[in-house]
Design a protein that fits this description.
It contains 17 helices and 8 strands. By secondary structure, the protein is an alpha/beta fold. The strands form 2 sheets. The protein has a 6-stranded mixed beta sheet, with helices on both faces. A two-stranded antiparallel sheet has the order 7-8. Strand 5, helix 3 and strand 6 form a beta-alpha-beta unit. The chain is flat and about 75 Å long.
């Protein structure tokens, strides 16, 4: 077991890891008191090297490892990797490891459970138990204990061994394309960009007037800018309830700001308050120009309930046949949209989901097939003209 704390050592190890067709990667990080995740440890395992990388070591550059993540002929294997990718995206100039394999998504595609935990996947496929004793440890403290190091390294050694088995199962079931489609969201840079002007999307609008929406968007943008710049959690800048209060009051003066319950005493005289008021004054000059454009709510046609219920039965039958969780294929809101329109803009109407469910759902709507019970099992039957 190696703890890498110098750039030269890291570069040498990355050369060895880069010779493997696949490597397993995991991270340990802290973010309770910061906006940006504090990267505390990187674990990596290939066929000839199993290492722990200390990103907190004085003077170390992670560039050799980031270059390894970019290497096109080495598959990078993660489990439930969204937060890991967010870290590397911001560390490596919008880096997204490529090619990429997520074992949680792969396990879901081959019918091992929806969003299966790492522990359960290791137990199911490798017959190994994971020591959970160091799960909630403070990874920023040094030195790491032997137990911490063993726990961290086990994460990637198990992951390395899971990959070939999951890849084989995907091949056997013909579902490699399922994984490819599911990975598109994870590998889309927009998934990890945190533009302050889009921060309002994290909140649920409570009113639709231009003034309220413009004030809400401005308050959320201000909070996001403050949180990112000062590297602190959004809630420490201002809680969501405070954002809604700012949206309601739309304060443009220190007096108006000071009168709000969400604002601590004296805040109105601070630099952050000054920045907030400047932004709010600009927004309130032309609220219509600053208000976000909300998507129109789709009103479902009346008497659609029976169609939705039929689609639910079809979904359960298809999911059972495919050996996957129903919600991996479609959600109830998806079914409502499909019941309302043959051109519903939902995941179930494109890609592999359309092939296994969406196409059949449309035939059921058009009366081209029926659902019947055959020996206690729901099956579909094509109807003749």
């Amino acid at each position: 077991m190696e703890l890498i704390q110098t750039t030269d050592h890291l570069a040498n190890v990355c050369k060895a890891l880069g010779k493997d067709p696949h490597i397993a990667v995991d991270t340990e990080f802290m973010r309770e008191s910061t906006f940006w995740p504090q990267l505390c440890l990187i674990q990596a395992a290939g066929s000839k090297a199993e290492v722990l990388i200390d990103p907190m070591a004085d003077g170390i550059s992670l560039e050799p490892f980031l270059e390894l993540l970019r290497k096109q002929d080495t598959v990078k294997v993660f489990h439930a990797c969204r937060q890991d990718l967010e870290i590397f995206f911001h560390k490596g100039t919008e880096l997204i490891p490529d090619p990429l394999f997520d074992t949680q998504i792969a396990a879901s595609a081959v019918g091992l459970g929806d969003s299966i935990s790492y522990d359960n996947l290791v137990r199911e496929m490798l017959g190994r138990e994971i020591d959970k004793g160091s799960r909630f440890t403070d990874w920023s403290r040094r030195p790491l204990s032997e137990r911490q190091a063993e726990y961290a390294l086990a994460d990637v050694t198990h992951l390395r061994d899971l990959y070939p088995q999951l890849r084989e199962k995907l091949s056997e079931t013909g579902r490699e394309s399922w994984l490819t489609e599911e990975m598109r969201l994870l590998t889309n840079p927009e998934t990890y960009r945190m533009a302050p002007e889009d921060a309002w999307k994290r909140l649920k609008p409570r009113k639709t007037s231009a003034k309220w929406l413009a004030a809400m968007k401005t308050a959320a943008q201000w909070r996001e800018m403050e949180a990112q710049t000062r590297d602190m959690p959004r809630s420490r800048v201002m809680k969501d309830d405070g954002i809604y209060e700012l949206a309601q009051a739309a304060p443009t003066s220190t007096e108006q700001l000071a009168a709000l319950r969400a604002v601590p005493k004296g805040f109105e005289r601070s630099k952050p308050a000054e920045r907030l008021l400047t932004m709010m004054r600009e927004a309130m000059e032309k609220p219509e120009d600053h208000a976000p454009k909300l998507a129109r709510q789709t009103h479902l046609p009346p008497n659609i309930g029976p169609v939705v219920e039929l689609l639910k039965v079809l979904l359960r039958a298809v999911a059972e046949e495919e050996g996957v969780a129903p919600r991996l294929i479609a959600t109830v809101p998806d079914l409502e949209q499909i019941a309302a329109s043959d051109k519903a803009d939902v995941p179930a109407m494109s890609g592999w989901r359309y092939k296994v469910f969406g196409e059949t759902a449309l035939k059921l709507k058009r009366g081209e097939l029926a659902l019947i019970l055959e020996r206690g099992k729901v099956v579909t039957v094509e109807l003749e003209d």
